[in-house]
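Severity: low
Component: inverse-folding endpoint
Summary: output formatting inconsistent between runs
Steps to reproduce: submit the following structure tokens with default settings.
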């Protein structure tokens, strides 16, 4: 009997800002209803009607975000969940093109993220995709493309079996938009989708706040210190909390090295993927294409 998974996704700054991202949390489908209920209780207990990364500028939302991080690590990862965040830099060689079409580029990034996270599960699994609702996205084409890729042959490495193939990679059973305000798993995806590009954008400040916290500031630093806002400090505490939890469990999440969240091994259940061009002609689509 094939396994079934649900994947809930949300994005951050999809049409503005230098760094943009899509976050997706996937888990066995039989846990979805109960997990959404538990997260609803967590949000209500935190006096937060809907969690949004952009609203994290107070202690109330900070405590809620830290509870969401703990819930993911303590409750969801043991159930087989994983979080994948794909971040791209609009100033890199792929994206710095005249007339870039951000809507179509988002569609491609959504495709890349979901294709990769689904192939990290067992072959033949059935998938139910639940992106945050957006009327400007061609969801039908995305579903068709993912469905086609999922049926590609998986060739064996052994020469004598070079013509053999196994069952399909994955099966996209359903793709339906959801309203994030009514879907706590989408709100969790929003938290991680917001955290990762934020640390890329504010990496210098993150490094400064790390130094302040550890008491390792140098009097010989050449750069003038930045003045963090209250929101910056609250967000830093959430990000640092995530990093500390992951470090204690050996999940391979880096933060202190470069001042932004990144991971090295995509097989880990927490995967922060910073997109780079996959080949020489890998360019963002333009409105003239």
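Observed output (run 2 of 3):
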């Amino acid at each position: 009997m094939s396994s079934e998974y649900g994947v809930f996704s949300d994005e951050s700054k999809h049409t503005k800002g230098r760094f943009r991202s899509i976050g997706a949390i996937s888990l066995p489908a039989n846990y979805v209803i109960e997990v959404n209920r538990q997260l609803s209780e967590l949000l209500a207990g935190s006096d937060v009607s809907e969690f949004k990364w952009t609203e994290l500028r107070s202690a109330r939302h900070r405590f809620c975000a830290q509870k969401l991080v703990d819930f993911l690590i303590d409750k969801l990862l043991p159930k087989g969940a994983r979080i994948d965040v794909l971040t791209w830099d609009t100033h890199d060689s792929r994206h710095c093109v005249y007339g870039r079409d951000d809507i179509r580029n988002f569609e491609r990034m959504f495709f890349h993220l979901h294709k990769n996270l689904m192939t990290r599960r067992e072959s033949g699994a059935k998938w139910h995709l639940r992106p945050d609702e957006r009327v400007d996205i061609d969801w039908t084409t995305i579903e068709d493309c993912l469905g086609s890729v999922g049926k590609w042959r998986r060739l064996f490495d052994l020469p004598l079996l070079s013509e053999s193939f196994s069952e399909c990679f994955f099966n996209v059973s359903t793709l339906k938009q959801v309203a994030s305000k009514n879907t706590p798993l989408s709100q969790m995806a929003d938290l991680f989708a917001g955290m990762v590009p934020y640390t890329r954008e504010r990496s210098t400040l993150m490094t400064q706040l790390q130094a302040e916290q550890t008491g390792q500031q140098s009097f010989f630093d050449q750069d003038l210190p930045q003045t963090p806002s209250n929101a910056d400090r609250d967000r830093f505490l959430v990000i640092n909390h995530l990093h500390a939890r992951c470090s204690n469990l050996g999940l391979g999440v880096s933060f202190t090295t470069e001042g932004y969240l990144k991971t090295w091994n995509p097989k880990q259940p927490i995967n922060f993927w910073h997109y780079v061009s996959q080949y020489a002609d890998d360019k963002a689509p333009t409105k003239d294409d």
